[in-house]
Structures are given as C-alpha cells and as structure tokens.
Specification:
Length: about 120
C-alpha cells in the first residue's frame, strides 16, 4: 500500500484580507498571494492556503476542526483576542491537555491546545 500523509490544507475565507491580517498579527504567519482569491500560508507548521468563499468552516456545520498548538495557552488566547479573533469556547480541560476554540474574521472555527 502507498504511504499517504496530510500535506496541505485549504480553508475558506469570506474576507481574505482580514483573515490574512488576523493570522499575521496573532501568530506572525506570512502569505504568498496567487491572484486576488487565494493566499498560501507560510510559517504555520503545515502548508496550506485560504481561498475566497462565501462559506465558513465550523464544527456545528460538520467541518473538520483545525487544531493549533501553543506551549503558552493563555498567551495564545490573548494574541487571538488582540488580533480580532472571537473566543467561542474559553479554555477548558480535556483528556491530554487544555484548549480553547475561536473564530477568525472569516468566521472559521479553530482550536489551540497545550499540555
């Protein structure tokens, strides 16, 4: 059987400019624009990109949840809030660690976890 691994993730962005600004301010990610409707993510740990869409990705709508990692969870939550993200589930414990969920300016849901 061929070896297969997750290599790239593409996410919707209702407002591409605001989404790029948020992730740059919150996490110091950078982007490479490929036309007006697509931006590749750089410096996030996994390659991917944002494409212009009228839809958002949330777990309530059955979307996969992109989970980020930070060794400093409270600081990460502060960075999210200062950059304009919205915490939708405050820090809580789960088997294996703690995490919180937030949405970016395009309404996509993410989580950040730590031990």
């Amino acid at each position: 059987m061929a070896s297969v691994s997750i290599n790239y993730i593409e996410l919707p962005a209702t407002n591409l400019a605001a989404t790029k600004k948020f992730f740059t301010e919150a996490f110091d990610w950078s982007f490479v624009d490929y036309g007006p409707d697509y931006a590749a993510i750089q410096g996030a740990g996994l390659d991917g990109g944002f494409y212009t869409s009228e839809l958002s990705a949330t777990t309530a709508q059955g979307s996969a949840l992109v989970v980020l990692y930070s060794p400093k969870l409270e600081q990460a939550q502060q960075q999210v809030e200062q950059a304009g993200g919205t915490v939708i589930k405050p820090i809580f414990e789960f088997p294996g660690g703690r995490r919180f969920h937030f949405t970016c300016p395009s309404g996509n849901e993410y989580a950040i976890w730590s031990e």
